[in-house]
């Protein structure tokens, strides 16, 4: 009898795991449960669907249920797994539309439930007109809201990547938009100097940014709909629509109930092959924790690119192959209001928390040769370990063609290169692409000088 | 008495060496000889000055003679060094305008003479109306020619980077342009498939491209000006102006005459600190040979980015510091007629010549998420060593935002990463910047599969 793989969750991680396992082992029975309406879609694309830059929902979907079925995967849409029985090796499921329920046995199980949006425990949070932005259905709900003429004022709670992307999308639709964030600068994963530049760019687009102020309550009208956001400092921000962009946490409820161990970070604990500590159970995507290669800590990073890679690794291993996921180094990128920003490695705060002592430098340059038409400003900051000069982190902020340079620095960090080694790298140069010293090399040179100066003082 | 540094050549390498040495050792006497009209300028910017994209000559100059002088460097413009006496440690110079001559003693000497353009030894090559494109004066001469109404038809001999960039510049000025190249595809440093795409893009801009055909002669009119290029196959290409874009060779004449040893490649031989084999003589820039980190061979690569780095290294060492130039891996980038192309590591031909056995793959993807507005095509090819899967070379061709990704792969090659390691890298992802699997990761994944398939067959 052929073996059976059950996959919980049909988005990036689950879909990749199912596909890879089936591809490697043709006689494997693969059943994939998805409680939503879509499989393998780009959640990161939702803001652009909302703004109208992307026209239809279908283009966000990389692989439809029918495409998965054509590859031999038994996809059960709108079907939620409500329990896992590790002892009997079965999952309990429920059809969300028809109401039917049943169990499905497994030999291998992939836990790919993703994440759940953070919801602050404040009065009014469950009112109509308060939306998260996480799954495709959230996007559809938001689009429906935004097409109503009565929606003119939007308050976005949380100034992280997604919050700002949604704020920009709403602004592009001509609405009045306010972003509220507890921190002094938005996108807390960046150092404050980068965050300040982002705040400035967002404000220039006519978006109101309220910083250092949290959400205390959501005021609800007689119709049961949210009508204002009240901040901790007492400001009242009128809102026809409230969007929660406070980030996500791993969806581990089912795992906890079943007894699949979590890690120190709160995500499902997995080894390098994406095996959980429960026999026959694998996990991948936003719900798992990963090893941070610089801090040595376990971290939860909800990003489609990790989900895809982790799903692939789980699938290959389940299909009889061998693959590992080697961890993360905190690379991220965003474009908000024509400003590009990216980071890799540790931020200053993270580096300190990890016990590193370091020097920090920043340089201003241009994306092309200074004299070349279309050269745009780019700022590169780096932190390098004292004495060794090892690159620990880098952040880039600038205009078009600035931020994707972070990949080069991510690979330097991955290989534990020192800024001294980096400044000698054979990187590409031609006037339409960079100054003769690429901005990342100028930064490395300056960081090297700072490391040397520091050594002389030691 | 303070020591004296003499620098021959005031462009990228010489200028950097002089600046760094003076900066490190304030009491050093530094004399820099430059036979042209400018110091520290961007020769790579000349095509854009010719096209008109860059307005004035001054913007191509990174550091003027007066700026060098303000930093304490004794700059002798329009002054050619005509001989080096290693025994007596002096150079002989000649003022090109006034005719004065003299000698200058040195304790350290930097040989940074750059390169000379290749000139095919064919009849008519020295006629009026035949120009090289190498130094700023060449650019000025070409601009003067192009502003004459009688110049309508331009033939560019050589389809390398510079040849094509000049061809495009002339086309942008509304001229009839033909490029002639001996090879079957232009830009011979690229694999033929990339070269073919470049040829297509160039032709689409209305530039005639004649391939697999060399130059046999230049026909000269009664006025002494070139009037046509005659190819080896007998074609006659009418020309009011002929531009030579056949590449350059290191300018080693003075070195040879003085007895400064050359290396196997024909460039001046230097060690890691940029010391030649002659006592007290250093060299940097287009005139030296570098170690290719993959082939192990010595190669001459004429690129401003290497010249700057090598000059810096020589200057630091002369100034009492310690620095090395660790070699090159063949990274290059160009934009021609809206097509971007880049390479790093070894091409297929180079890898074979170096004795490597490898698999080659190519993938087509997009520069942003496929659904994102402005996503452009990108093609990434990779060659990976058999068994080890070590990345040996990569080439990228595509539209906007495609080619600069080569830096990421250059750093992978620099660190001797295998395609297996590469596909797991934590690279940046957001829909405005890449698909969820960045094109370079997709290529690495495919290369890994090819390596695995090859191993199974071994």
TrEMBL record, chains A, B:
Residues 334-436 form the Pyridine nucleotide-disulphide oxidoreductase dimerisation domain. The keyword Flavoprotein applies. It comes from the Bacteria. Its cofactor is FAD. Keywords: FAD, Flavoprotein, Oxidoreductase, Redox-active center. SUPFAM superfamilies: FAD/NAD(P)-binding domain, FAD/NAD-linked reductases, dimerisation (C-terminal) domain. Transmembrane segments: none annotated. PANTHER family: NAD(P)H SULFUR OXIDOREDUCTASE (COA-DEPENDENT) (PTHR43429:SF1), PYRIDINE NUCLEOTIDE-DISULFIDE OXIDOREDUCTASE DOMAIN-CONTAINING (PTHR43429). This is NADPH-dependent 2,4-dienoyl-CoA reductase, sulfur reductase.
């Amino acid at each position: 009898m052929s073996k059976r793989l059950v996959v919980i969750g049909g988005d990036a991680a689950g879909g990749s795991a199912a596909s890879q396992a089936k591809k490697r082992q043709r006689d494997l029975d693969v059943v994939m449960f998805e409680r939503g309406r879509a499989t393998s879609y780009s959640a990161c694309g939702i803001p652009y669907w909302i703004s109208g830059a992307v026209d239809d929902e279908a283009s966000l979907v990389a692989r439809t249920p029918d495409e998965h079925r054509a590859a031999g995967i038994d996809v059960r849409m709108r079907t939620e797994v409500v329990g896992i029985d590790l002892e009997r090796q079965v999952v309990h499921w429920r059809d969300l539309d028809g109401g039917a329920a049943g169990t499905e046995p497994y030999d291998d199980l992939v836990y790919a439930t993703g994440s759940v949006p953070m919801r602050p425990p404040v009065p009014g949070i469950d009112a109509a007109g308060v939306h998260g932005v996480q799954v495709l259905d959230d996007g559809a709900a938001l689009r429906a809201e935004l097409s109503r003429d009565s929606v003119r004022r939007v308050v976005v709670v949380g100034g992280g990547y997604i919050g700002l992307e949604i704020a920009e999308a709403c602004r592009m639709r001509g609405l009045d938009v306010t972003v509220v964030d507890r921190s002094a600068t938005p996108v807390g994963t960046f150092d404050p100097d980068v965050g300040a530049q982002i705040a400035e760019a967002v404000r220039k687009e006519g978006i109101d940014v309220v910083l250092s102020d949290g959400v205390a309550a959501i005021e609800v009208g007689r119709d049961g709909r949210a009508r204002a956001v009240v901040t901790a400092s007492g400001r009242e921000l009128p809102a026809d629509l409230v969007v929660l962009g406070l980030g996500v946490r791993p969806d581990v409820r089912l795992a906890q109930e079943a007894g699949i161990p979590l890690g120190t970070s709160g995500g499902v604990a997995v080894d390098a092959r994406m095996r959980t500590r429960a026999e026959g159970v694998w996990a991948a995507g936003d719900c798992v924790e990963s090893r941070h290669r610089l801090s040595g800590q376990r971290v939860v990073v909800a990003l489609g690119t990790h989900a895809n890679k982790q799903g692939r690794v789980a699938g290959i291993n389940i299909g009889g192959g061998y693959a590992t996921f080697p961890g993360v180094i905190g690379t991220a990128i965003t474009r908000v209001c024509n400003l590009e920003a990216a980071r890799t490695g540790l931020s200053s705060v993270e580096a300190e928390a990890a016990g590193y002592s370091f020097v920090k430098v920043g340089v201003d340059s241009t994306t092309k040769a200074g004299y070349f038409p279309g050269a745009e400003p780019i700022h590169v900051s780096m932190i390098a370990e004292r004495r060794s000069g090892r690159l620990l982190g880098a952040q880039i902020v600038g205009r078009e063609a600035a931020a994707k340079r972070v990949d080069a620095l991510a690979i330097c960090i991955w290989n534990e290169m020192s800024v001294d080694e980096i400044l000698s790298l054979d990187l590409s140069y031609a006037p339409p692409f960079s100054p003769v010293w690429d901005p990342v090399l100028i930064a490395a040179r300056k960081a090297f000088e700072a490391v040397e100066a520091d050594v002389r003082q030691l």
